[in-house]
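Two quick folds needed for the group meeting slides. Do the first one here.
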Amino acid sequence: MIVVKDLHRHFGGFRAVDGTSLEIATGSITGLVGPNGAGKSTLFNVIAGVLPPTSGTVMMDGEDITGLPPHELFHKGLLRTFQIAHEFSSMTVRENLMMVPSGQSGETLWNTWFHRARIAQEERDLLKKADEVLEFLTIDHLKDERAGNLSGGQKKLLELGRTMMVDAKIVFLDEVGAGVNRTLLYTIGDAIQRLNRERGYTFCMIEHDMEFIGRLCDPVIVMAEGKVLAKGTIDEIKANEEVIEAYLGTGLKNKESA
């Protein structure tokens, strides 16, 4: 689905992404790991149109999407979440979901005057869909809660719910487990697997929790110093000497050989 070729993103003399090439297969849950400063989030930002590349190409389903802005990629089904959730804190959980689809009739003044019936029908449809999403994510009991009152894990579930309000093809998840307790982390993991299995979502996720990565992801891609260092199953990654040295540390190697 996604093919990245010789991608660079430089900030002055600093090469955050330095000739990265990788592929994300349709229907996969691909993990992206690496030490802090490896270029993972910058890579996500370039793919998702948040940052323009210095050079290189990004292809999606054979189409060159290099440098397209986020709103155009959104309409193509490419979505990105962030390590810190971006919710509308004063709105309810349900209202946050209903805000996602673009091109709603109620967005124009003309329609609010002359097409109220159409707007009312759209709102009923959105309400139904939002409730279905919340039930899928097992947070329907929070539908009328202000989003700003949610815990960190619940906000991550809400972000995942936003991707379900449109026809997402691939979702880039940036540290979905950051600041989330283990119980909610498993709930998020189950939702990701169900979306992948039942609705055909493709995922690529940055995560530091190797247990979580191992449970969900195949393949796993390791980045270091702006480049791809290794790719394989979680067991292959853990056994890779370069990865152990660059990211996982000698402690893991000694522990597993003990």
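Then this one, please, same format:
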Amino acid sequence: MVKSGGGDSTLTVMVAFAANLAVAVAKSFAAVVSGSASMVAEAAHSWADAGNEVFLLIATRRSTRKADRRRPLGYGREAYVWSLLAAVGLFVVGAAVSIWHGVTELLHGEQGAEDYRIAYVVLAIAFVLEGVSWLQAIRQLRSDARAFDSDVLRYAFETSDPTVRAVFAEDSAALIGIVIAFGGILLHQLTGDVVWDAVGSILVGLLLAVVAVVLINRNRIFLTGEGGPPRLQQALSERLASFPEVAGVRFLRPEFIGPKQIFVIASVDLVGDAVESSVARTLRMLEHRFEDSAPEIIEVVLTVSEPDEAGTEPW
């Protein structure tokens, strides 16, 4: 039985998409009018983010499809595939274009008649819109982190939901990038040297590259079988051991098969010395009870531990 969700993540991604699309159009206009290299980098950044939200919406939609005969554990891992593509897009479109344009401006840029006022106005508007999207991501992260007794930053890095992590990371990078672009344009205006504007573009590109690499790596880890932090494994083991029929948990291996979706394999000692047919019924009953104990637990497979496993560590 696969429990589906994703409503909060969809709202977070939709808010981010609307904000990034509006910001991308405004920054593109400002880039053309002002002639600022930093503003060009920011425009590329926002267009990359807007395109990425499309991938994240696809990720949310496809990963919440119900399980069927072909996929008995559901389609949860599709979220990591599409989120990985979004992270690669951020690296290629956002980071590479920003760095390339900055280097080109640094080597061949010429002083022109820049319109600094329009650049400052657009950056201010962009900061407000990106801030709204960032606050929505923070709101969802704080709610989820509270349920798992974690702080927001730690949960943002560890969460199995790649869409909210991507929005939080991209919006955080966007806010920092706006500050960098503002600094580059301001120094360009004060000194008359186009180098500062070009450096701002390069720094924005490097920032996006770092964020993209982090997101790519997190999606890679979940695609290849993330078991979650030790405290999650400990909590699951303690919950299973709390059932009166369980004398001890000898082995437990959780694995994320989608956002907030966990598949658990465990080996347990049962209370008493029941016959084989009774043991099988007890294990099936425990599996269903364990699955019903938390919405994140999608499916459980339990076995009886071998006699020589007694006394071994649970993982």
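Slide caption for protein two: The chain has two domains: 6-224, 230-304.
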